[in-house]
Known about the structure:
Blueprint: H1 3-26, E1 28-33, E2 38-43, E3 48-53, H2 63-93
Antiparallel strand pairs: 1-2, 2-3
Amino acid sequence: xxxxxxxxxxxxxxxxxxxxxxxxxxxxxxxxxxxxxxxxxxxxxxxxxxxxxxxxxxxxxxxxxxxxxxxxxxxxxxxxxxxxxxxxxxxxxxxxxxxxxx
Length: 102
């Protein structure tokens, strides 16, 4: 493979990665806790877009439980976002571990 072909291949891969990152930024995953009492929607670039809390989860005398449910729901959504991102980017990089992308 000559240098021109290699550069063309690198440019193509960069364009595909940019497209994949844009798709991930608009892909939404959901996480939940407490049997759905708390739900979080997050994009695959880790922006929380929505938090839903069931009225039954709101106890003014027990804010700590609600706080814990929110943490669990956010972490659940983040794990799903990471898995989706790794799967999508891994398909482009052929399994290569590129810092900041996988």
